[in-house]
Automatic annotation (TrEMBL):
Residues 3-167 form the DJ-1/PfpI domain. This is DJ-1 family protein. InterPro entries: Class_I_gatase-like, DJ-1, DJ-1/PfpI, Prot/Nucl_acid_deglycase. It comes from Paramuribaculum intestinale. Pfam families: DJ-1_PfpI. It comes from the Bacteria. GO terms for cellular component: cytoplasm.
Length: 193
């Protein structure tokens, strides 16, 4: 299984970032956090004051051979990701080759939509942030999981979002095992798969 990266920019939503990494690692997936900040430091402060030390800086990451690129939401975290040339170039290149991308909360609208990654696709995002585009089919659902694109609507949907990533990479049995161990039962949630 290839390595995955989750981007951390100042103002990221802590629950969406950390719970996603946690679930993926429980499933045995290699996921590393990448600090995207002007100080070029591994320390990144989330939207609610939680400081996280990322696994690496962008120059230490190889975005050419990855499984997932993941964007948590949060404000101004999602906008900071959208403003990052490193993030947008990595996402464009990964999308162009059919790579797997996941984004939650404000990031589907602020990061993926302007890059055209959601065009012709179904997606969800934080309520009220839906992009004004007739090219995107926005769903009122906690999680929309397509083959190589997963979107979530906010913090409360983070475990479902992360389990959808695990499901796409490791299969239903592993996702069920991880979810059951965490007392999360995906079949009882309102998913749009």
């Amino acid at each position: 299984m290839k390595r995955s990266y989750l981007f951390l920019a100042p103002g990221f939503e802590e629950t969406e970032a950390l719970a996603t990494v946690d679930v993926m690692r429980r499933a045995g997936m290699e996921v590393l956090t990448v600090a995207i900040n002007p100080e070029n430091s591994e320390k990144v402060c989330g939207a609610h004051g939680v400081v996280v030390v990322a696994d690496l800086l962008p120059e230490d990451a190889d975005f050419t051979d990855v499984e997932w690129l993941i964007c948590p939401g949060g404000m101004p975290g999602a906008q900071n990701l959208a403003d990052s040339r490193i993030v947008t170039e990595a996402l464009r290149a990964h999308a162009a080759k059919g790579g797997k991308i996941a984004a939650i909360c404000a990031s589907p609208a602020l990061v993926l939509a302007p890059l055209g990654i959601l065009d012709g696709r179904e997606a969800t995002c934080y309520p009220g942030m839906q992009p004004e585009s007739d090219k995107i089919v926005m769903r009122d659902a906690p999680v929309v999981a397509l083959d190589n694109l997963i979107t979530g609507n906010g913090p409360a949907s983070t475990l479902a979002f992360a389990l959808a990533i695990v499901r796409r990479s490791c299969g239903d049995a592993v996702a069920q095992q991880i979810g059951s161990g965490m007392l999360v039962y995906p079949k009882s949630m309102n998913f749009y798969f």
